[in-house]
Design brief:
Oligomer: single chain
Largest sheet: 8 strands, antiparallel
Shape: globular
Helix content: 10-25%
Order of helices and strands: EEEHEEEEHE
Number of strands: 8
Radius of gyration: 16 Å
Length: 165
Amino acid sequence: MRKCIEHREFIPVAEVPTEMPEGIAVKYCVHWPGEAREITPDSLKKIMKKLRKEEWTDLYLSDDEDLEECYMNLEGDGRLYSLGYVQHEGLAGEQGAWWSTYDPDFLGSDEETDIPCSDGQSIIYRETTTADKEAVMTAVEYFIRTGKLWDGIPWMKQWDEWIEE
């Protein structure tokens, strides 16, 4: 018989967060409802402006325009933000890990937020949110520029492992 073990690891903020580099590493963004659009230096400025002004409250970022592989997603309501990164969705073990922002005061809580999810059906739990808008905006821009998670925001890494009993 197989059993699933859920793992969590908490990655703290770096003492000196990495500075913002130049360039663009992530190819596509999707704001629902919409198609994937290629990210350029000009569109990056527009994306960040729309996010900061809260004209957009959701965004998906990926090198795969179908968002089927690895992607970052942002959902927010102007007060709380849920930022996550999914690595190889559907794979077990650390290869299929996902990272999210988190609020230490709500860890283990099943409290739901009122954040409307762009897919129209998912529930965003309070434990995976943060109220630190500036850190979220910096993390989004850093991801677009590098394809990596910014170390200036705390992350909760999660993955499932299947074991034989």
